[in-house]
């Protein structure tokens, strides 16, 4: 992959009117203005799209569902590299160079950043630390770590599986099964701790781990989604 590969940043949203413009400004500040940004709105009334002030942004409507929304964005993306970004996540400076340098390494087809939160409490830092240890060992990052992948690889493996939860985990597990390399960058993104705080930091952390363990044990993502909905939104 050439060092001047083009990037497409895909942002799946659902009622993110308050955050979307801040997210877009952050992307352009940290990556530059030359990259393609695609916002995929899954809310029934497309509530986020009308709030986008930057007219260079590509916006598209989709049925709700993060996997479906991200696949929809990937289908129209023209970049050589796809980056999937949550609206409440901020990329680090020089992210484009970091991603390109990672993907020119032999055999590497995908990766993600390390995790950090905008909340600097001890508990938030501990949760991020433990999440990064898990990701380093497993090479299976979550969607809030700004995962990136070569588009040709994404197309080859068929994109995200159309399941209601754990689509990010299953995508990277599929990559591992194909014996392709995944890289975890030391540089951290900054993601909002809002959902952890809404649920309770410890409760949300334990629930996340429980859902992941149940998924590893073969529990259906559709069953996990019911648990997810019954106990509040999972980040």
Description:
The two termini are 32 Å apart. It contains nine helices and nine strands. By secondary structure, the protein is an alpha/beta fold.
**Low-confidence runs:** 230-235
Strand and helix order: EHEEHEEHEHEHHEEHHH
CA-based gyration radius: 17 Å
Our count of helices gives: 9
**CATH-level-2 architecture:** Alpha-Beta Complex
Q: Percent of residues in beta strands?
A: 15-25%
Which fold does the CATH topology refer to? Spore Coat Polysaccharide Biosynthesis Protein SpsA, Chain A
Largest sheet: 7 strands, mixed
By CATH reckoning, the class would read Alpha Beta
Distance between the termini: 32 Å
Which descriptors would you attach to this protein?
235 residues, single chain, alpha/beta, Spore Coat Polysaccharide Biosynthesis Protein SpsA, Chain A, seven-stranded mixed beta sheet, 9 helices
Compact overview of the structure:
With 235 residues, this protein is of the alpha/beta class.
Q: What's the layout of helices and strands?
A:
Elements: E1 7-13, H1 20-31, E2 36-41, E3 58-61, H2 66-76, E4 81-84, E5 89-90, H3 95-103, E6 108-114, H4 122-138, E7 148-150, H5 151-157, H6 167-177, E8 181-188, E9 190-191, H7 194-199, H8 201-216, H9 221-230
Parallel strand pairs: 1-2, 1-4, 2-3, 6-8
Antiparallel strand pairs: 4-7, 5-9, 6-7
